[in-house]
User: Which sequence fits this backbone?
């Protein structure tokens, strides 16, 4: 069976750099601040992505399950409660258990600089904070998922 | 920085979009609307003598790790001159999970102190006189439980309940929309809030059993006008619920308080508070016929900072917080919490928390701005902006009414969607350079520090110690008493004519845990189903 | 994949992703020789009628008895192609439902409420061993026609205040449903709407003898969801007894072929040079026809 080489999902262009990408925006744990996640989800949609937003209070198992079934290219975890190291580790573990660790992982929220290395070691490809322009976040994601 | 960026300009509109006249003169004054401090509708302040009669409460939000850790920080802050306590609770406690629940485990002790049962609260207040110090709890989904725990603690310390002062936030409507620590669906949550308020009015008459908060919708992206409008609309929803339960508006309204953010737009904030005072008094008079002046008073606390503070060039935040605190003082706030400059990216260190405290003390005792009540009253600009803001708030409140009221707007996800859209707009304005954030989108430096050298470290062993204590309590408490009090709670929750507070207090005395009480209530009421609409 | 084998969700997800993005040439290459056929249920209706929540509840209910593969289509932005794929089933419930697989897809360029390669996606789900497929799409006007051929049982979801829809029914543009659902039945006007639909239905001869029932539903009322599910069961039983299965599948195959041919034609037309388009019409036509065959060696 041949692998499709001509995709009819148009490759990302300037106007829609994430066209054809499927991205899950998730809120793991108990953190109730969802506005950043929602703003990013909307920005990703405006950049052409197909976005699924999970809503609040999802377990790592639930997040991994929907990431796999929906065949997403990337999962963005929004965490502002300080529990990023534990929650990211749990999500990574759940994805690994289903052989899905090729799904790219990103984190947004309040992550102090000294935790960046630990998250990268877990496999996180990018960490975003609210002071970054949305266009930069979109561009970084586009580059990472190219 | 791109050369196509606009230069920063002063602009002629507040962040909420209200026009600021470049030259304000006496033609803008409407003397009949200004009023007198201490007289309804209280535009100029609820007390004729303002802060001379009573300075605002300096109440710094604090809490982390174990009850012992937080107790130590509270003793430090009280020694440094803080006059009231403001308790930050961790997410498991706020959301009703015990520390050993898998959803709770990564979050124990992180954003606040873990209080899973009465024993922890006894530790929290060790060496602190509950009869003398006012304590405010930022707690919502589990507010009734924490309040019950507070009563039980006072009981055990021999402090008469009538002496207790303080607040529980207890405002579930904004949780659904902007803060996310909801537990039960809307109706049973409103029931529980009414139970708490009616009980508190009898048992702890000096305690504020609700702090209706616009703060969080503001922080989430709503404008100052929307913040006040949503808050007042929520306030009316609570008033209506209490009246349905047979409460006397003139009585319970005396103990309704409010809570807001203060962001950087100085005059916008002052006008917002003045308009809020005026509107609330008028609403109670017009809609419910309240004449008791004390019941018409719009009392509120504020937090200065929040999402107006940013990580790049964090010392800039000291300046922001100072300006915001001044606005709070000119706006007549009853209690002020000033954020620390590192609040944008961590729990404050002891030194940044101290500086936040000093900010208030300097403004209070060195600057003189608090000496005269509503010192900016009569200013052409301030009075004009107050009137404009009042009108704008009214317009938003009418939109909510037209939709069908706050409860429907929340259950449908309509309010949530509005806030998300507003947040996106706000972010896009900043990204386009139409809104200035010094150090972030203008006057930024590539090599700018994003943090300060000293960082706050949550003790990595705190969670383990919390769980250890929790397990010990569960092993040593009277299991029969636990079962009895939980069963009684369940039976009472199934009826809608029982006030649950006494049952919750009994549970606390039996060392029933927060998670156990919540599980019992969930069995009766179910869980809130979040409408995810983007 | 046999019905009893454990579902490889990751592999299925990959397959669906491949198919969603596949060009016409790739679709042909990937098409199975002997496609499986399982009962297909379709839920369609205008935006805002509460279809998503209803579909979610229905899926969870039926997943207790069948292995369900569900496809839900959400509209893409015509400008950027992006989409927010909707909230249907609370993840807490979904994660616990081993018998349910949900895939959300964006309509992309489609104006008919469907999505690229939808027939292929449904086929892939059938091949993965599900006992029943559930398809939820946005239906406005002719979308119902598109969905009609792809499913066996089609339920049209309406809500009180849907005056326009009833007018359309009277005009004959919306008569293709097997079941009519009046959702948000807790709202005023629900009973009246149901009655009106029944009246319109009675006026026209029941097509092929199936009398489309009107079911009142509310997501707050579990019994109403059961009633909808029972109506679906009844229709499925009726189909087994009475319907022209071969005819139905032929219509489905025709429409599927039409979609592919239209896409192929679109590819060809996009590639026609400006020069060709300045030629006389019959030469343009011939050029287009000549370009139609797929050059397999270049894919």
Assistant:
């Amino acid at each position: 069976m041949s692998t499709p080489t001509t995709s009819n999902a148009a490759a990302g262009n300037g106007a829609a750099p994430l066209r054809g990408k499927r991205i899950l925006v998730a809120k793991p744990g108990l953190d109730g601040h969802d506005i950043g996640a929602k703003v990013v989800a909307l920005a990703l949609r405006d950049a052409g992505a197909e976005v699924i937003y999970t809503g609040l209070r999802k377990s790592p198992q639930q997040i991994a399950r929907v990431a796999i079934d929906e065949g997403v290219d990337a999962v963005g975890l929004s965490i502002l409660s300080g529990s990023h190291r534990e929650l990211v580790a749990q999500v990574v573990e759940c994805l690994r258990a289903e052989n899905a660790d090729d799904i790219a992982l990103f984190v947004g929220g309040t992550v102090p600089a000294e935790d960046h290395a630990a998250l990268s070691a877990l496999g996180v490809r990018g960490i975003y904070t609210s002071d970054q322009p949305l266009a930069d976040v979109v561009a970084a994601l586009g580059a990472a998922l190219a | 920085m791109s050369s196509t960026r606009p230069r920063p300009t002063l602009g002629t509109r507040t962040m909420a979009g209200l026009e600021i006249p470049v030259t304000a003169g006496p033609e803008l004054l409407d003397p009949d609307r200004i009023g007198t401090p201490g007289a309804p509708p209280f535009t100029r302040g609820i007390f004729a003598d303002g802060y001379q009669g009573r300075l605002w409460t300096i109440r710094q939000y604090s809490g982390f790790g174990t009850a012992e850790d937080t107790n130590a920080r509270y003793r430090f802050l009280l020694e440094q001159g803080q006059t009231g306590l403001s308790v930050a609770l961790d997410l498991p406690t706020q959301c009703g999970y015990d520390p050993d629940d898998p959803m709770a485990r990564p979050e124990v002790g992180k954003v606040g102190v873990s209080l899973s049962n009465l024993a922890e609260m006894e530790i929290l207040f060790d060496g602190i006189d509950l009869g003398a110090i006012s304590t405010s709890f930022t707690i919502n989904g589990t507010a009734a439980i924490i309040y019950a725990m507070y009563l039980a603690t006072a009981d055990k310390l021999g402090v008469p309940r009538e002496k207790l002062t303080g607040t529980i936030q207890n405002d579930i409507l904004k949780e659904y929309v902007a803060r996310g620590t909801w537990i039960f669906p809307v109706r049973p949550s409103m029931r529980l809030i009414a139970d708490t308020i009616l009980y508190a009015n009898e048992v702890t008459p000096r305690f504020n059993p609700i702090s209706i908060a616009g703060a969080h919708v503001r922080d989430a992206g709503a404008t100052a006008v929307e913040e006040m409008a949503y808050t007042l609309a929520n306030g009316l929803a609570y008033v209506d619920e209490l009246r349905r339960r047979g409460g006397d508006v003139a009585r319970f309204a005396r103990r309704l308080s409010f809570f807001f953010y203060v962001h950087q737009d100085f005059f916008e904030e002052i006008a917002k508070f003045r308009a809020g005072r005026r509107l609330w008094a008028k609403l109670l008079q017009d809609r419910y016929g309240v004449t008791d002046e004390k019941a018409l008073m719009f009392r509120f606390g504020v937090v200065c900072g929040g999402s107006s503070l940013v990580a790049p060039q964090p010392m800039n935040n000291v300046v922001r917080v100072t300006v915001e605190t001044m606005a709070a003082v000119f706006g007549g706030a009853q209690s002020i919490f000033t954020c620390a400059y590192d609040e944008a990216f961590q729990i404050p260190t002891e030194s940044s928390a101290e500086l936040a405290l000093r900010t208030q003390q300097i403004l209070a005792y060195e600057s003189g701005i608090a000496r005269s009540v509503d010192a900016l009253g009569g200013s052409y600009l301030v009075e004009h902006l107050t009137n404009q803001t009042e009108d704008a708030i009214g317009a938003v409140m009418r939109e909510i009414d037209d939709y069908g009221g706050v409860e429907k707007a929340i259950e449908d996800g309509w309010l949530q969607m509005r806030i998300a859209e507003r947040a996106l707009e706000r972010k896009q304005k900043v990204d386009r350079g139409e809104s200035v954030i010094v150090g972030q989108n203008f006057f930024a430096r590539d090599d700018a520090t994003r943090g300060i050298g000293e960082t706050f470290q949550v003790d990595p062993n705190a969670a383990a110690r919390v769980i250890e204590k929790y397990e010990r309590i569960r092993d040593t408490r009277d299991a029969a008493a636990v079962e009895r009090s939980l069963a009684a709670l369940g039976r009472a929750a199934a009826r809608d004519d029982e006030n649950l507070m006494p049952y919750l207090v009994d549970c606390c005395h039996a060392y029933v845990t927060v998670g156990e009480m919540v599980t019992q209530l969930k069995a009766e009421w179910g869980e809130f189903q979040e409408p995810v609409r983007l | 994949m046999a019905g009893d084998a454990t579902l490889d969700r990751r592999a299925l997800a990959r397959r669906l992703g491949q198919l969603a993005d596949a060009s016409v040439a790739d679709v042909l290459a990937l098409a199975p020789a002997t496609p499986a056929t399982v009962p297909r249920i379709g839920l369609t209706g205008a935006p805002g009628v509460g279809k998503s929540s209803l579909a979610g509840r229905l899926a969870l209910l039926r997943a207790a008895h069948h292995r369900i593969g569900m496809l839900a289509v959400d509209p893409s932005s015509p400008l950027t192609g992006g989409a927010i794929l909707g909230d249907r089933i609370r993840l807490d419930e979904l994660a616990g439902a081993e018998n349910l697989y949900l895939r959300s897809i964006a309509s992309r360029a489609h104006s008919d409420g469907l999505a690229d390669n939808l027939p292929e996606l449904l086929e892939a789900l059938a091949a993965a061993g599900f006992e029943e497929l559930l398809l939820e799409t946005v239906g406005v006007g002719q979308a119902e026609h598109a969905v009609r051929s792809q499913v066996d049982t089609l339920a049209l979801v309406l809500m009180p205040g849907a005056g326009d829809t009833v007018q359309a029914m009277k005009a004959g543009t919306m008569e293709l449903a097997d079941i009519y659902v009046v959702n948000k039945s807790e709202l005023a006007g629900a009973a009246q709407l149901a009655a009106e639909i029944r009246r319109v239905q009675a006026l026209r001869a029941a097509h092929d003898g199936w009398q489309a029932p009107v079911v009142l539903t509310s997501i707050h009322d579990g019994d109403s969801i059961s009633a909808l599910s029972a109506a679906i069961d009844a229709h499925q039983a009726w189909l087994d007894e009475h319907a022209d299965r071969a005819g139905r599948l032929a219509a489905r195959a025709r429409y599927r072929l039409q979609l592919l041919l239209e896409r192929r034609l679109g590819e060809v037309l996009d590639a026609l040079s400006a020069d060709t388009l300045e030629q006389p019409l019959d030469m343009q036509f011939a050029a287009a026809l000549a370009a139609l065959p797929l050059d397999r060696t270049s894919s």
Q: What stands out?
A: The first helix of chain C runs from residue 9 to 21.
